[in-house]
Every structure is written in structure tokens, then in C-alpha cells.
Microsomal dipeptidase-like Zn-dependent dipeptidase (Siminovitchia thermophila), 138 residues
Amino acid sequence: MKPDEVLKACAGKGGLIGVCAAPNTTLTRNHSNHSIESVMEHFEYLVELVGIEHVGFGPDTFFGDHSAIQHAFDDRLGISDSHSGEEFHESPYVEGLENPAEAMKNMIAWMVNQGYDRTEIIKAAGGNAMRVMEEILQ
């Protein structure tokens, strides 16, 4: 949910971009109902833009009232500006990622079903995050 220049700059420094799945954040024109498909469309966009080495899953799913907490974050952090001028149906959760105990598993299963190889899946599911943390802690 940042401009391409910022995403490329992050990747250019070896950084990691986490794909969020909090309700009403990663909607797309192709997927106007918030679902795993809209989230993964963002994932694929990022992979195309900066490469799999700089993308990871950060679904930000949790038990409880997803929408209320997202509104609090939007109000506090100004994320709502990213949706200004666009019409969308607000969702209380992300279909396919509504259960925090299953969100990561469902994202990995989506990658398997789309033909991603084991190495790519490992990178997105935590390998890239581990790489960045190891580089920082050295």
C-alpha cells in the first residue's frame, strides 16, 4: 500500500515488504470482495515488481473484531488515505484468511495451487524475514 518507488527503494536496500491481509486494506479492482484472492493479487504484483526475495507474508489476522481494530489503525496511522475516492464494500474479515490459526497455511496452499516452487514458498512464508533479521543482527 505504498507507491512503487518506495517499494523498489525498500527492495533495493535488501529489505522486505510484508503483504498485509487486514480487512479492507488489500482490495483490488479484480477482487472487490476482500478475500484471499485480493490479498494474493497484491502478493503477485509485488513479486513482479521487486522479486520474490523481497516479499513476505504478514497477514495481520487475529481473533476478534477485525474491522473495529482496522478502523482504529486507519484513524491513528492515516492508512485510510490510501482508499480515498474509491468505492468498496467494507468487509468484517478477509474471506479465506478469517481464522488466524489458518491464515498462513491458506496463503501457502494458494501458492502451491498456483505452481510456486518450494524455494519460493519458503521465502514468502518466512525465509525472507529470517534473512533480513540475520542481516540486521550481524
